Amino acid sequence: MAEIPAKTIESAALLEVWVVPGAAQTQIVGVHGSSVKVRVASRAEGGKANHELTRLLEEKLETGVRLVRGITSRRKVFEVSGVDADFIVRKLGLDL
Fold first, then answer.
1. Helical (H) or strand (E) element with 36
2. Model confidence pLDDT, tens digit, residues 33-59
3. CA 69, CA 23: separation in Å to the nearest integer?
4. Is there a domain that residue 1 lies in?
5. Based on the structure, what is the number of domains in the chain?
6. Which of 35, 43, 54, 85 could anchor a disulfide with 6, C-beta 3.0 to 4.6 Å?
7. Are strands 75-81 and 65-69 parallel, antiparallel or unpaired?
8. What are the counts of helices (DSSP H) followed by strands (DSSP E) for the chain?
9. 68 lies in which domain range?
C-alpha cells in the first residue's frame, strides 16, 4: 500500500510532488515513494518546469495551488487551498 502523497492541514492540503523535467509529454505518472510523480515537457530553466507543473496541477485539481517548498529541487510541496487530501487523491486519479 502506497503512502498518501497529500495531507490535510487546517483549510488546505499539502501535496508532495516528484517532478521529472524535460519529458516527452506532461503527465501525472503515479506515486513515487511519498510523492506524486509528474513528468513535464519543459526543461528546468528559468522556472519553466515549475510553471508548467503548477498549471497542470491547477487544471487537474480545478483550484489554485501554491509552490511552498522546493523551487530548485525535484521534490516539491504545493499548498492546495480549500480541499483535503482525499479530494487530491481522487482528482489526480491516484491508485493507492
1. strand 35-39
2. 999 999 999 999 999 999 999 999 999
3. 22
4. no
5. 1
6. 85
7. antiparallel
8. 2, 6
9. 6-91
Structure-block grid coordinates of residue 64: 489554485
Q: Which three cell numbers stand for residue 87?
A: 479530494
* Cα distance between residue 43 and residue 20, in whole Å: 9
Q: Quick count: other Cβ atoms within 10 Å of Cβ 61?
A: 19
Is residue 96 in some structural domain?
A: no
Cell 480549500 sits at which residue? 82
Which residues fall within 8 angstroms of residue 77, CB to CB, at 6 or more apart? 14, 15, 16, 17, 67, 68, 69, 70
Give every residue of the chain whose pLDDT is below 70, as ranges.
Answer: 1-4, 96
Closest C-alpha among 7, 13, 29 to residue 65: 13
The C-alpha cell of 95 is what?
A: 491508485
In sequence order, the β-bridge partners of residue 25 are none
CA 31, 34, 39, 44: dihedral to nearest 10 degrees? 180
